[in-house]
Design a protein that fits this description.
By secondary structure, the chain is an alpha/beta fold. The protein contains 14 helices and nine strands. Helix 3 links the parallel strand 2 and strand 3. Helix 12 runs antiparallel to helix 13. The N and C termini lie far apart (43 Å).
Amino acid sequence: MPGDPTTKSDAATRATKMPTNPAVSVIMPCWNRERFVADAIRSVLAQTFADFELIVVDDGSTDGSREVVASFRDSRLRCLHREHRGISATMNAGLAAAKGRYLARLDSDDMWLPEMLATQVAVLEAQPQVGLVYSRAECTDSDWKRLEMTWGYPLRFPGETFRSMVYNDCTCNITVVCRRECFEKVGNYDESLATSEDLDLWLRVARHYPFEFTDRVLARVRLHGGSITGGISASRDEQMERRGLVFDKLFATPGLPPEIVAMRGLVYSNLHTSNGLLWLGHGKTRKALHAFRRAVAVSSTPGYALLRILWSGFKWHVLPRLPGGRRAAASMEKFAQHVRKKNAG
């Protein structure tokens, strides 16, 4: 893409010296991403904020990923090689090697825009009470062609981070910059989780720290058949069931606030609704209807669950196909956020 950091030469970054105690440690898990990892690395090295280290953790790749990473000559970049053990163990290996007071993650098939770190670090520096900051990312196909969707949105309940995250994960994982102290308080990634490891971690962090949302696109998520986020296959149901395990773990946690415990039915209904909408978007009507039936069945307010399914289906799958529909959907979402913020105040 013209003007992308992914097209820049590495020459300008080779002279950059690795800071002794970097402000940010960027962890990049990599498993068989020979085609994509160079773009991801270049986008980090092209950041306007230079006080960082980049730790690529190769999780037993069997393609040419290691050779691609080794082709970069920048003192801020180092690569750890390990046997294949999955995403959570890979991230924990990166965390163990990290030296920064702030921690960030970029998956090896995605990319940051040049102002990503500068923008997010400034928020944390200005607001010491905030534990984690995140922003939006635009979605693209495997060739960086922009798709009509973004990830990351404001807290559903302004000023109530934990409640918002329990209701629905609003973060975009690759735009998160988090204080090291958050990990020291709640622990690292749960290595028993094969997917949704980020949701589990951010739920634990949200119980103790407020999150801040930067309403800007600061990254690009590449959706492709080989990515968990981009693929839709027979394993999607398994992935969503594993996501349910995160909430099983949450609701088994002692001492949860009563208002969180009361959200149990709503949470599982939301989970099945999200699954149904994904299946619907990929033309899998039978699977979508099955998920929607489960959403209604587990809800403590079945009528509300049904209305939410109908409204969400209309907003995301019917309205965008109408002239001006995408703009109308975005306006309605902003209005709803405004109302929730006003009520919270």
